Amino acid sequence: MTREEKLMVAKQLGKLGVDIIEAGFPIASQGDFEAVQEIATVVGQGGNPPIICGLARALKKDIDVCANAVAPARFPRIHTFIATSDIHMKHKLKKSREQVLEITREMVTHARSHVDDVEFSAEDALRSDYDFLSKVYSVAIEAGATTINVPDTVGYTTPKEFMGLMHHLRGTVRGIDKVTISVHGHDDLGMAVANFMSAIEGGARQVECTINGIGERAGNAALEEIVMALHVRKAYYNPSFDRPVLSETALTNIKTKEIVKSSKLVSSMTGMMVQANKAIVGANAFSHESGIHQDGVLKNKETYEIMDAELVGLHQDTSLVLGKHSGRHAFRSRLQETGYSLTDDELNRAFLRFKDLADKKKEITSLDLASIVNDEIRDVNIRRYELVGMQVAAGTTNKPTATVTLYDTDLEKEGCVAAIGTGPVDAAYKAIDDIVGTRSTKLLEYSVASVTAGIDALGEVTVRVQDELSKREYIGKAADTDVIHASAEAYLHAVNRLLSNRGQPDKAHPQKDVV
């Protein structure tokens, strides 16, 4: 994500009520540093802001840069880590156990010299020797770590194993009763959330999760699933928190009605669509197709629904009393009711899109509104090329042709090209490539999804492209009632991002770069 996109997501995470936002890896690039710093400044202030955390390898330079990035936050945190499994120490770090212990002591101490709140992770903890792991965590706590994180870096463990490790650490790590135990995990075997729930029963009190479960490879543990499991099964988990079984006190600070909105925003910003049968936030999560289920739900919702859709912010009545005659004030008011807070420039762009959509659709829904708002407020500063016009011709007997006109904001001139392709979308993309000069762009993924039902529904198009020169990948997304137009806008969005990053140094990777 760009800095602007990260800030938007961070603001929503603040509304969602998360306790800690790990905002990025500041040493990775100047853009990442600025994004973390801005999140610390904007979201990390106020009456009850979340902790703003930055990630740093066990290197002084990483830690120093991270400290500067999170410094503006009211509650800054540095999260530093080093690998502890034999396979990582031998092949990646090329260091002995004794060296890893010494680095842990030195770097946690250094991080603590910058901030009072230091988190330490033992990378690949679940494949580490448990006794050595206990020594590493003991050293980290002695050096000043306030949170120790236990990562299942490769999604390898099982729920029973994770709980067993929690019990082992609680019984062998010196000073563990004075710190918070955290867990981090990936979903390579589809057990990330189950692993986390077992870890919570075993004593974990911080879980590092993501909206929609997004993340490297198969993703991370999904925030919405963990939160709702703790909510719906509160009576089951209460004893693990030393509470009475029937205690009604919430087990997290999450405002559950912000979950769906957060899910849609992250999906829009990342271009990663949510599968229809995804728990909690999927389009079918509260749908009933079976006749037996439908009959039961009509008689009593609790027969087949264990939670109310409105509890996670999914409103069944999504219609908005807005049309083509609605004014700017009414539009702003409705946006605020829906939870969106836009700047004047963002509002102006979104309002123009709304008026355009209102001319095409009889009924505007809150889902349509979310789509056009998210579409119009991303990546404003990197739109070098803008789509002025497009005309396509296709059919069973004609060669698909597209004529595209783009405006170059740098050169302040228009370019127009006609191209032939295997279909109208392919033709439009070839025309864009000809104008922009991005022939080294490879289309990796193209998908279309309907925002709402109906023949006049908005079509959301997501594309993923690769710059064959740098091998970097970029996401583009756009929505329109005309999917061909949306396809061109999405591709142009990705191409603009690609062009803005050409010539920039490669980002460091927190787990793949050698310490």
From TrEMBL:
Work out whether the entry's keyword set contains Mitochondrion. no
Alphabetically ordered keywords of this record: Acyltransferase, Amino-acid biosynthesis, Branched-chain amino acid biosynthesis, Leucine biosynthesis, Metal-binding, Transferase
Tell me which CDD domains the record gives: DRE_TIM_IPMS
**Tell me, which GO biological process terms does this entry list?**
L-leucine biosynthetic process
Q: Which GO terms describe its molecular function?
A: 2-isopropylmalate synthase activity; metal ion binding; methylthioalkylmalate synthase activity
- The residues covered by the Pyruvate carboxyltransferase domain are 1-247
Superkingdom per UniProt: Eukaryota
Q: What is its EC number?
A: 2.3.3.13
Its UniProt pathway annotation is: Amino-acid biosynthesis; L-leucine biosynthesis; L-leucine from 3-methyl-2-oxobutanoate: step 1/4
What top-level class of enzyme does the UniProt entry assign? transferase
Q: Which residues form a coiled coil?
A: none
- Per the UniProt record, one Pfam family is HCS_D2
SUPFAM superfamilies from the UniProt entry: 2-isopropylmalate synthase LeuA, allosteric (dimerisation) domain, Aldolase
Q: To which protein family does this belong?
A: Belongs to the alpha-IPM synthase/homocitrate synthase family. LeuA type 1 subfamily.
Query: Under what name is this protein listed?
Result: 2-isopropylmalate synthase
